[in-house]
Fold:
Amino acid sequence: MPAITLTINNDLISARQGQTLLEVAREHGIEIPTLCHLDGLEAMGGCRLCLVELQGAPRPVPSCVTKAAEGMVVTTHSDKLVEYRKMLVELLLAERTHTCSICVQNNNCELQTLAAKLGIDHVRFDYLHQQLPMDASRERFALDHNRCVLCLRCVRVCDAVEGAHTWDVRGRGSTSRIVADLDRPWGTSTSCTDCGKCVQLCPTGALFKKGATVGEMKKERSFLNRILERRRLAAQGGTP
Amino acid sequence: MSGDCCEHTLLVDDPRLKLVERAMKRLQYQPDALIEVLHTAQEAFGYLSRDLLSHVAAQLKLPESQVFGVATFYHFFTLRPKGEHSCIVCTGTACYVKGAGEILNTLEQAAGIKAGQTTADGRLSLGTARCLGNCSLAPMITIDDTVYGPEKPEGAVDKLNRLLEVPHEQG
Structure:
């Protein structure tokens, strides 16, 4: 595998051809915050939290979809980047209605953890105070649009791993919503297999198991890489 | 479900459906022909019903949610039948500066719908356009393709009410 050398935060680092900047950084213990990214799912560069500065580039680039190249000079943390990241998380908090104190995901929430790590103690934008509906029509799971950050992990895992493609996104901009099938109640979806992968990968309490109360929902994700690994082996002709 | 008002069963011998079927056949039921098929369907039916979307999804072997996502992303497609009458408020720069926003707000309140929607009784669709190319009439509106301007909020409501023959207080 051809090796390349690049500079990240003034350190010379070697990487393999084809790796993304995010992968390289994480391999070398450099922490870049992410929200939509999840190992095993196709990267989509949606949340923009992994933005890094690239010498010679006119604007920051998302490290999850930018391939490392020979001689790149990358900065993962600067005052400007930290400010952008804070602003992005604040915008997410202001857009929907995230009330941690009554959320099943309290203390296990990726959005909450991100906000805490970035030192967000207030939101500079006006809250939209949207009162979005909740879909509890499925027997075991429920969807609360108020807590959704549109990371599309559910859409991606349902399509690429489960193969059902129950979820997709309706509309555009601030009116975008996750929809099941033809925007029918989730409980009446004929494509959903009830596997719960989307629920386990959801970074917030938007998708949750019924019966969980405040702070009780913990998500279990190890299945994802196990499934993908077995599929890789099967595709190579090994015994899965 | 708000969308269920538009449900209707697709009839096999509906000539409009035949147009859609022909388009799909011509495009060899390729999944990436979705937008073109939806265009044909929108033009044939005037809107995209759930049954129609479901049928297209099945024929093109696409997930229903993906078809729905595409149909709601593009402004060209509508999921509900257009109203009997249409009223378009120009919100281009000249009209906007001259008070189109106020006209639109007043009309929205009077009709009880937002721009881009159709009243529940199906009598009126309210819309906006970015410049109808007649800025000397700013602020202008069109009602069923007749141009009015310069328009005032009260005048616009009056014209609509007369058209719909609805007493003013019921708006």
